[in-house]
Design brief:
Number of strands: 9
Strand order of the largest sheet: 1-2-9-4-7
Helix content: 40-55%
Shape: globular
CATH topology of one domain: Jelly Rolls
Structural class: alpha+beta
Distance between the termini: 43 Å
Radius of gyration: 18 Å
Number of helices: 9
CATH class of one domain: Mainly Beta
CATH architecture of one domain: Sandwich
Largest sheet: 5 strands, antiparallel
Order of helices and strands: EHHEEEEEEHEEHHHHHH
Length: about 200
């Protein structure tokens, strides 16, 4: 992993993203840029591994990452993908400062804007606007995770794939079949059959 302080054109996506909520002032956004650094992650590199404590939050400028854990029999279970224009961290570990049970890995070359936890805490103390923004982001993350759980428990694999095709077509171009199958909770063979049936 490589860090650099000068954001350059990298700041444009995150500025537009932060402005889109209509919560922060220009000065507050500028204060965020002043404490942020660029983090580059090569394909297959790890943002964090199981057992480590997450001490930063990042904004994904470009690239794709997957979050996964190991089942009791040692198999990788992919449960989340993160694309550009999204904040990312190992949430439970970041909040509680305890070792994480997840792994977050880049599946393409990835560039992120990183801010350490202690500076996030300082932002929250500096303005209630930051508290409102982080509350909103946490709520979005909860809604996304709840939808994911309901989809896995209530719908068939075919329905889950159709939902992916409808709402996240970029998943299908950037992610290998084995990761997709794991995310959908099915075998690669089953996924191939579903893909063929939809194409036909």
């Amino acid at each position: 992993m490589h860090y650099r302080h000068y954001l350059g054109m990298t700041q444009v996506p995150i500025v537009n993203y932060l402005k889109s909520f209509g919560i922060l002032t220009d000065e507050e956004i500028e204060s965020f840029l002043e404490i942020a650094t660029i983090k580059s992650l090569s394909r297959d590199g790890y943002f964090i591994k199981e057992g480590r404590v997450c001490k930063e939050i990042v904004f994904v400028v470009s690239g794709v990452l997957r979050s996964f854990y190991y089942s009791s029999d040692g198999k990788e279970v992919t449960y989340c993908f993160t694309f550009h224009n999204s904040f990312l961290t190992a949430y439970s570990s970041f909040i509680a400062q305890t070792p994480t049970q997840e792994n977050i890995q880049a599946i393409t070359d990835t560039e992120m804007v990183s801010v350490p936890k202690e500076k996030i805490v300082a932002l929250e103390k500096s303005s209630t606007n930051w508290l409102w923004l982080f509350k909103h982001l946490a709520e979005q993350e909860y809604i996304k995770m709840e939808k994911r759980i309901f989809l896995l428990q209530q719908e068939s694999a075919e329905k889950r794939y159709e939902d992916l095709l409808k709402n996240h077509p970029n998943y299908l171009h950037a992610i290998s079949l084995n990761y997709l199958a794991s995310y959908l909770g099915i075998s690669q063979r089953h996924l191939s059959r579903i893909r063929r049936s939809i194409l036909n």
